[in-house]
Structure formats: structure tokens, C-alpha cells
Amino acid sequence: MYVGAKNKAADNTSDATARTRSAGKDDLFLPGPQYDENYNAQGNLDIYGKKREVEAPRPPVELGRQQYTSGSYEPSSTIFGELNPLLPGLAIYGDWRTAVAYNQNDGKDIAQIATRLNIDIDLKLTGTERIHAFFTPLQKNAQFTRYEFGGGAGDGRFTDEFDFNPQTLFFEGDLGSIVSGFSGNEAGFDLPFTVGLFPLFLQNGIWANDAILGGAVTIPAKNSAKLGLPNYDITFFAAFDNVDNAGILGPANNSNANIFGVTTFIDAFGGYIEAGYAAIQGKDDVGLAEDGQVTHFLTAAYSRRYANTISNSTRFFANFGDGKDDEGYAIISENSLITGGPSTLVPYANFFVGFDRPQPLVDGNGAGILKNVGINFETDALTGYPKLDDTASNAYGGAIGLIYLFGADLGQQLVFEVATVQPFEDDGVGAKEAQYAFGIRYQIALTRAWLLRADATYQIKEDQDENDFGVRMELRRKF
User: Fold this and answer.
1) For 443-456, how does the pLDDT look when each residue is reduced to its tens digit (9 = 90+)?
2) Residue 408 falls within a domain, yes or no?
3) What's the domain range around 400?
């Protein structure tokens, strides 16, 4: 009797506890959604942009550990240490560009087909270390393999421009990961670096756009509560060969100088700051630079969005030193309006003013400081497509245009632009008289691999008897 009564009491207690817990659970959850007959599940998915998985194109040559894949991997080798496992992978990829154009440039007209092949070879060693090479076998310096079929004296002439030397060949990695691997202990720091013939690309390619032979090291991802800087990094770089600056060294003397510099990227003042200093030092008396001659280069930029209406980047460039005609400075203001279609309809207005002889730090194509101001200031690096004077030497001006993306998956683009250069002094370097241009560009992604682009420009240069114009069509195959 005692045992039976005890069990019954326990059963009553369990039932009461269960009812209490069940009531508590009911209080924790809100009623489920109530759908009416017009509910459209697909429509609710479409509000997220009809996003879907996109099959990424793969390189034609890909050996070893593939990039950006998922699944089960074989165990990695620990030859460099357990904290820096070996993840070997070789990828070869690039693109092939072929364009047909008819250009009248500085009073000379020519019709031609030109082609260039860009090949990247990437050998990944670990998660942070790799060896990379870049080849342009159908290009020598700034000249491309071409067939001239009309205009001037070039009718029926084929010119090969073969060069199988690497345009870049460098090793890059992180010293912190390397130290961690060999020591077996976490290094506690990151120190990315590169050495070899590596690309230097600064200020969106305006200040530096070339491969230099040397090295660079970065102090990354730092912050300062005292200065109110949430994020900044500092990069030091140096080169001892392959320094291209036509204004300081001459057009064919890239072995005649050393270069030393530092650049920084800072998040501050509600925007983004980029600044840098570098010096080019002549090594002998060949070309324009003399032995020991030093030219200093400064740059600074501030980018920010204002009132969710306009995006602005203001850039400053200066060069000065103890050589001849190596002083100048320029200010470039890049502006784009934020419309109701901020990613598809982008009106822009870029302006500049330059004094004396401003010039980039290094540029392998010999382009001037204004190459990114607008499509009328850039050539196509293939057919000699005409451009406005891009030196900013004692001149002001700018470009106003409209970019429109449309079509399925936004695979088509139209660009309209008018531009001008207004010199206020004839120094024998830049434009002698006023220049004006109208340009248009259309491009369409035929597939993920094929791209078709067409350009046309008409340019009025008051110091020439004839106006310049160019029309071109280019087919590009990515692989």
C-alpha cells in the first residue's frame, strides 16, 4: 500500500509538471503566419533579385587544389609546418583581345586588325604564398601584332611583335604565416610581402600602373583609437630596375633608375584616404636622368559619398626635384550622381586642372596623369585609338558622361561622353590649343567567356588642320 500510494502521487506530480511545461511553451511562440489564397511563394523569392547559384568558369589548365571549390579534400602536406599547410595548385588563365579599327590620329589615318594575348600563370603553394607570372607573347613594349590593310603607307603590311619574356614574375606571401609554419607557434602578426617583377597599381592606376623589379611589404589592418582611425595600412616598396617614367628617364631607359616609396590607405573622416610618397633616383647619365638626380612624387586622395546623392573622389598629384622640367602638380575631381538606379544608371562629371608638367610615378604604357578622367582620354592599348591630350600640362578641363547598364543580367553597357582640354599656356608639352571630343562605347557579354565592345570618338583639336576620329570593334575571349 505504501509503495503503491507513493507511485500514484508521483504520477500526479508528473502530469501537473507536463501541463505546466506545455502551457509555458505555448506562451513562448507567436501564432504561425496566415496566408490568403493570393499568396505567391515565387514572388517572395523574386524580391531578393531572383538570385541563384552561378556556375563559375574554370581555368583551361587547373592542376592540384582548385580555387573556390567545396567538398572533401585530401589531407595537406605539412612540409612547411602544421600551421602553414601545403596546398599546391597550378592555374593558367587569361584573355585574348582582337580589334579592327579605322583611326585618324594627328592627321594620319590607318585601318588595321591588332591582337594581344594575356596569359596568367599562378602557382599556389600555401593559403598565403604563391608564385605568379604574366606573359604577353603578341606584344613588344606598347606595340601589338597587327595587320594594316588601309590608310597611309600601311596597306597590306603585317607586323609581328613577339615577346616571350615575362611581364611580371614574383613571389608573394605572408611572413607571419611562414614563421608560424616553421616555428610551430602562432606568430601573432601578419606581414604580407612580395619580391620580384611585380605590378604596382596605386590611385586607381593613375599614379602607378606598371611592373617594377624590386619588393614591397605591407603593415595591414591597423587601427588607432587615439587618432580615431578604425582601419589603415602602410606599404613600403622599392625597385632597382624596370622603372618606366618617360618624362624623367626618357621613353626607353627603364633600367636607369631606382625607386623608393611608401603608400597608405586610411578609413577616416567618414570616407577613404589614399596617400603616398616616392622618389625616383637616376643611376647614371643615360637618358634624361643624371646620376644621383632625385625626383620626388606626392599623391593624396579623399573619397566619400555626400547626402546619399553624390560620390566624389578628389585626387592630388605633385612631382618636383633637382632635374630639368620635372616639376608639376594636378588636381582631379571625380564625381558620380546616385540615381534611382545606382548600379545601372550613373551620370558622372570629372574635372581637372594641372600646372607645369605633372606626371605619374610609373606607367608602362606611357600614359599621362589624365588617363582615367574619361573614355576620351584613354587609348585602347591595342590599335592606337586617338585620345585627347592626357598630360594636364598647364591646362584645365574634364569629361561629362552617362553610364547605362541594361539587358538580361545587366550584360550590356552604353557610355556617352563629351570632354575638353583647355590649355592656358603653351609650354611645348601638352595641348597647344583647345581640344574637344565626343565619345560613345557599347559592350555586351555574349556569354560568360565572350565579350564584344565597340567604340567611336570624334575629336576637334584646334592646333591641327584635320580633326581626329576613331571607330573600332573588339572581340574578347576570356579563358
Assistant:
1) 999 998 999 999 99
2) yes
3) 373-479
